[in-house]
Structure formats: C-alpha cells, structure tokens
Amino acid sequence: MSLWTYANPAKFMAFTRPVLPVLWGLAAAALGVGLIWGFFFTPDDFRQGSTVKIFYIHVPSAMMAINAWAMMLVASLIWLIRRHHVSALAARAAAPVGVTFTLIALFTGAIWGQPMWGTWWEWDPRLTSFLILFLFYLGYIALWQAVDDPDTAADLTSVLCLVGSVFAILSRYAVNFWNQGLHQGASLSLDAEENVADVFWYPTLVTIAGFVLLFVALVIARTRTEIRARRIHALRLRERLA
User: Fold this and answer.
1) Interval 16-67: pLDDT, tens
2) CA angle 15-235-230, nearest 5°?
3) How far is 175 from 160, CA to CA, in rounded Å?
4) End-to-end alpha-carbon separation of the chain, Å?
5) Residue 21 in 3-state DSSP?
6) Running DSSP on this structure, what letter comes out for residue 44?
7) What gap in Å lies between CA 100 and CA 127, rounded to an integer?
8) Each residue of 204-225: pLDDT tens digit?
C-alpha cells in the first residue's frame, strides 16, 4: 500500500484511531522511565552539581523544537507539490506543539545557564537563532488564524515555513558556524569523544524517545482535530450556500 493512501483524510482517521492510544502509552512509559532514571538514579555532575539534571528536559525539548519545524517543512513541501490536505493540516497541527517545545527549551536553558554563565540570557548565536525560531512559530500560527480561506492559508504558511527553516538550521548548527558564544557544542553526537558520560547518556536516550513519541502522538491527535474542524467548516459553508 502506498504511503500516499493516508493522505486521504478518511483513511488517515481510520489508520490513526487504533494507533494513537498505543503512542500515548509508549510515550508515557518512556518519559516516566527516562525522567525518573535521570533525576533520581544518576549522580550530580562534578562541575555543575544537580543543575545538570535539567539536561533531561532541555536537550530533548530543544531537539524536538527544531525537528518539529523540520516535520512542518516536509509537510508544507508535500502540500505545495502534491496538494494533499492532510499534510497541510499536519503542519498546522505541529506548530503549537513545536512552539511549546521551543518555549520549554528557552526556559530550561535560562535556568541551566544562570548558575553556569552568571546570566539568564546571552545574545549567543544559538540562543538568538532559537529565539527567532520561536518568533517564526508564533508568526506561523498567527498567519493560519489570520487567513480565512484554508488553502490560501496553507500556501502562505508553507512559504513562511520555508523561510523559517533557515533559523531552524542555525539553531542546530550555530555553534559550528561561529566559534564564539557561551553555548556549548553538541552534547549528543556520533563522536564518542563529544558525548556525555554513559551514566547520563542512557537515560537521556530514553527521555528523547519519550519526547519523540509524545510529539508524534500530539501531532496525530491535533491533525485528527483539524480534519474534524475542516469537515465542520465545509458543512457550515454548504448550509450557507443552500
């Protein structure tokens, strides 16, 4: 069966109905295990003390903030090329989830940075690009709300998503582009020399898996809601024209 089959709203709804409860359960299990393991069964860092444990929330939320925009970009490109409504609605559904992850990352980063850097905020390349990404999220959501015609709104927000992708890339690779600023380099990498110690690495991987599953579950749930809202809008429009 082709993947494009699920671009049909009815088939998407039928497929995701039994899948969604499983995702909720897996997300809850992974987050529960990862966070309890990380916060209660790992030692304090020899430099940062117990403050380092905010790592288990900050790093996964920052990763998902960027990856959520990447998912929106793919969905937007599918809409622009194939005109599949489910992809446009999925991009719209992902935006509030992504902006929430971005806000969590900014907030926890400030809490983590204050005792380490001596300041709540620094106009560091990564932090600045991340803040701009947050503003793009807000603009994306506002644009969907401001345009009445759904297809026109999908077109305009897709273009905005393409532009905002520059800052999503900068948020991820700013430390590599500019060798200045307070923000550290990647804590998780395929290079073993750059990774955190295994005692922190394993619970972090479990927590990241939980954040990914939570994101997928939230996007599917919100996409289902968007499909229902679109159906209601279409029915009301028909009633007015009748």
Assistant:
1) 999 999 999 999 999 999 999 999 988 876 666 667 788 899 999 999 999 9
2) 45
3) 25
4) 38
5) helix
6) P
7) 16
8) 999 999 999 999 999 999 999 9
C-alpha count within 13 angstroms, C-beta hemisphere, residue 225: 10
- The DSSP secondary structure of 101-113, one letter per residue, reads HHHHHHHHHHHHH
The answer for residues whose C-beta is within 8 angstroms of residue 224's C-beta and 6 or more apart is 12, 13, 16, 20
Distance of alpha carbon 148 from alpha carbon 162, whole angstroms: 21
- CA atoms of 77 and 74, how far apart (whole Å): 5
Token couple for 160? 């905005």
How far apart (Å, rounded) are the C-alpha atoms in residues 56 and 35? 7
Structure tokens belonging to residue 124:
């560091």
Residues in the chain: 242
What is the torsional sign of CA 200, 104, 211, 155? negative
* 3 token code pair: 């993947």
Query: In this model, does residue 189 exceed pLDDT 60?
Result: no
Q: Are 31 and 211 in contact (CB under 8 A)?
A: yes
Residues 6+ apart with CB under 8 A from 42: 53, 199, 200, 203
Alpha carbons 4 and 1: distance in angstroms, whole number: 8
Query: Which tokens belong to 175?
Result: 């430390």
